[in-house]
Amino acid sequence: MPIDNNSLPYRPCVGVMLINEDGKVWQGERIDTLGAWQMPQGGVDEDESLKYAALRELEEEIGVTADQVEILAETKDWLSYDLPDELLGVVWNGRYKGQKMHWFLMRLTADDSAININTENPEFARWQWGDIESLTGLIVPFKRKVYESLVAQFKPFLKA
Predict the structure, then answer these.
(1) Which pLDDT belongs to residue 3?
(2) How distant, in Å, are the alpha carbons of 42, 91, 157 from that of 145?
(3) DSSP category for residue 34
(4) Per-residue pLDDT averaged across 33-54, rounded?
(5) 50-54: long-range contacts (C-beta < 8 A, 24 or more apart)?
(6) What are the φ/ψ torsions at residue 41 (nearest 5 degrees)?
(7) Predicted structure pTM score
(8) How many CB atoms lie within 10 A of CB 141?
(9) Per CATH, which fold does 11-157 belong to?
(10) pLDDT band of 5, cuts 50, 70, 90
């Protein structure tokens, strides 16, 4: 029997667009889906502020700590996406139809050695700095509209 995704909520999530001093954006290739790239992101725990969740996810996923970044901006509204049919009922134990995401733009104030993807629970196989324009072509198709909106909101903060 197909799952009625209209009855499921969105999973609250935060994400971080991390840039370096040259305005390049951190991009990581997912360890579980080679060829799929994304930025650090993850769920918001109960009673956790969005800012705290973003800083926690950044440290958990790429080893960068709060004292190694400067927060430049955040999205005005939640950005959401629906899971494709083949993932609905599979990821997150079938509890959500997708994610609603609140994003932060942060600048890395340390050097690249602060980045460590070999974390306790690694999520990325490799990483690179790239142009903001390349993000939408690297992300899985069902998250593309979120990334397009994110690029539009954060691009004015990057160096030309």
Answers:
(1) 53
(2) 18, 20, 20
(3) T
(4) 94
(5) 50/14, 50/74, 50/102, 50/104, 51/104, 53/14, 54/14, 54/15, 54/16, 54/102, 54/104, 54/106
(6) -160, 160
(7) 0.91
(8) 10
(9) Nucleoside Triphosphate Pyrophosphohydrolase (3.90.79)
(10) low
